[in-house]
Amino acid sequence: MNQNPVASMMQFYNKCVWVTGAAQGIGLQVALKFVDLGATVVGLDVAFDDKADYPFETITLDISEPLAVKAAADTLLQQHPTVDVLVSVAGILRLGATEELSVDDWHACINVNASGPFYLLQQLIPVFKKQQAGSIVTVSSNAAHVPRQQMTAYCASKAALTSLSHCVGLELAPYGVRCNVVSPGSTDTPMQRMLWHTADAEQRTIAGFPEQYKLGIPLGKIAQPDDIANVVTFLASDLAGHVTMQDIVVDGGATLNA
């Protein structure tokens, strides 16, 4: 029986995929999804669970350290000279009013969320140019689209990340390399659960916080990591072969198409 042509365009057999932030949350689900679709996956994160059995290669790396990123990329490219897909998911959240936010927290957000992907792109852009093929998917946030109280550093870093992706997409378009962004809203991850301190926190997040000028979620539910991973794999696949420099917001309508 002939294979469904749409399904075949969503397969990644003989493809090498790098995923940052692969130890947990969205990054882990993205890595697992690519494994299920046949890819050879290299997962990078600052720490992995020693007790977990990850079905992909794991590399411990702090992407906010440029020299460490270069060393890791040099080593990995000797083992995997072709990079078909790069997915940047690693991110951190630091909360605080702007005037009270520590300089360390500001730098941490910028360094991990925006500078880290920049360091990795600097190492891999020559590879993508040489290949004249590939896909880069960056996981940003709907917080790049709307202001949030207590989230100055996070919003600014994600806005920078989104713009970085678009600029790289413009540079790489002549080489046939596509760069797209996925911007999740509230998603059931360890980072999200750090913000939940009451039994009804999830329902309150869905309903919204008018006193913070934060809308609720029209679809009436929190996203699951798999919801985000599905969009990431679509954008990386041949089904999105004519899509580049786009930002798909996956937040159940919380930003009202902002």
Describe the structure.
With 258 residues, the chain is an alpha/beta fold. It has one domain (5-189, 228-243): 3-Layer(aba) Sandwich (Rossmann fold), CATH 3.40.50.720. Helices cover 40% and strands 14% of the residues. The protein contains eight helices and seven strands. It has a seven-stranded parallel sheet, with helices on both faces. Helix 5 (152-172) links the parallel strand 5 and strand 6 (178-184). The longest helix has 29 residues, at 103-131. The protein is globular, with a radius of gyration of 18 Å.
Labels describing this entry:
single chain, 258 residues, alpha/beta, Rossmann fold, seven-stranded parallel β-sheet, 8 helices, 40% helix
Rg, nearest Å? 18 Å
> What is the level 1 CATH name?
Alpha Beta
Write down the domain tally: 1
Low-confidence stretches: none
What name does the CATH topology carry? Rossmann fold
Can you count the beta strands?
7
Shape: globular
N-end to C-end Cα span: 44 Å
Provide a quick synopsis of the model.
This protein has 258 residues and is an alpha/beta fold. The chain has eight helices and seven strands; from the N terminus they run αβαββαβαβαβαααβ.
Topology (SSEs and partners):
Layout: H1 5-9, E1 16-20, H2 25-36, E2 40-45, E3 57-60, H3 66-79, E4 85-88, H4 103-131, E5 135-139, H5 152-172, E6 178-184, H6 190-193, H7 201-207, H8 225-236, E7 247-250
Parallel strand pairs: 1-2, 1-4, 2-3, 4-5, 5-6, 6-7
Helix pairs in contact: 2-8, 3-4, 4-5
